[in-house]
UniProtKB/TrEMBL annotation:
Its EC number is 3.5.99.10. It holds the Pfam family Ribonuc_L-PSP. Transmembrane segments: none annotated. GO terms for cellular component: cytosol. Belongs to the RutC family. This is 2-iminobutanoate/2-iminopropanoate deaminase. One of its GO terms (molecular function) is 2-iminobutanoate/2-iminopropanoate deaminase. Keywords: Hydrolase.
């Protein structure tokens, strides 16, 4: 079984001892992404929609580096600081897919890295 570390400067660098993503065979495991702007390292704030959009863009950059796209995502895990933001995050998230949505869970957590409001991780598979 081959393991390849995926890294791109188009997504934020890890803030701990982990990889942005790891490809094992045809499966890509993307670490949880938070709303950090990779251009300047600043947190994207203002509203949950902007935060969720940045998270999804970061995921997209990692997918692209691995030669994949959003349609390759088969499983998503969404972590929210406040479940009252579920509808807003769901709306932003949905714009990145066109049918055949991945399996998913969304859970409320008490705290996330850098005290952000949303973190998303995904698993994707090559076609």
């Amino acid at each position: 079984m081959s393991k390849k570390i995926i890294f791109t400067t188009a997504a934020p660098s890890p803030i701990g001892p982990y990889s942005q993503a790891v490809m094992v065979g045809d499966t890509l495991y993307v670490s949880g992404q938070i709303p950090i702007d990779p251009d300047n390292g600043d947190l994207v704030t203002g509203n949950i929609e902007n935060e969720a959009r940045q998270v999804m863009l970061n995921i997209g950059a990692i997918l692209k580096e691995a030669g994949l796209h959003y349609h390759n995502i088969i499983k998503t895990s969404i972590f929210l600081k406040d479940m009252n933001n579920f509808g807003k995050v769901n709306e932003v998230y949905g714009h990145f897919f066109s049918g055949h949505y991945p399996a998913r869970e969304t859970v409320e957590v008490s705290r996330l890295p850098k005290d952000v409001n949303v973190e998303i991780s995904v698993i994707a598979v090559k076609d």
